[in-house]
Specification:
Layout (H helix, E strand, L loop, with lengths): L1 H32 L6 H17 L4 H24 L7 H23 L15 E3 L2 E3 L1 H23 L1 H11 L1 H6 L4 H27 L5 H16 L4 H21 L5 H15 L14
Antiparallel strand pairs: 1-2
Amino acid sequence: MTSGLFQYLISGLTVGATYGLTALGFTMIFNTTGIINFAQGEFVMLGGMLSVFFYKTGIPLGLAIVAAVFATACIGGIIERLAIRPVKNASAINLVIITIGISIFIRGVVMLTLGKDTFSLPSFSGVSPILFMGAAILPQSIWVLCITCIMLLLLKLFFDRSIYGKAMLACACEQKAAYLVGISVERMAFLSFAISGFVGAIGGAILTPITLTSYDVGIMLGLKGFAACILGGLGNPFGAAAGGLILGVLESYGAGLVASGYKDAFAFIILLILLFVKPSGLFGKADSERV
């Protein structure tokens, strides 16, 4: 029984890491622009699908993933420049609808160009499971957790030490004040979309050897990432990452102990319960308005 619970924990952390990276993308764009980007799940999908595409051309796996990640980051920047910036003064609901349209467009393009099939990538270092405390841990799961931790550390350093990270945080606090001190809000918005694409693509690429990928996986991953973002507290980057891990673990235990058929429902049941109990999320602060 104990080994089974530990197995659920490892499985939940593995999937939850990708939810956390997706939630980080939501948070970075929201903090800089105030937009909920519902195309974030498509960045995760692009990470997996483009990795498969580049790998099939004969490029080594590592280089294929790097190429896919940077290509997705470029796509994120292009989306901001061509689809978001021209309508930046539109209402929040219109911007959300635009991101949903972008999501549908990306999914359609990928379906037409790369096909409807399900694809996989080889594991980074073999498929023989490692037995630990009675649980079988796939080497790829260790890669997923390690790369997620490295990404969180790099983002922490980026926001704390780099001038661009501090400028993005300034935009998150008050855009007008950031503009008055000479920060280019438009450039920070461009950067936030590019980094969100970068982070989302890494999540998709490292998870593909375990869960496979196809043109439509971004829908559910995006919704789970959004749920994780709300669970951790909208606007809190590391709360979002923690929310993803918590969501993945609860989902795994729910699927293992209750019924696997309701696995996807658990994320949204948890989200609804939390919104009733603590609308600001587990690590979020209650909104206050200065008068």
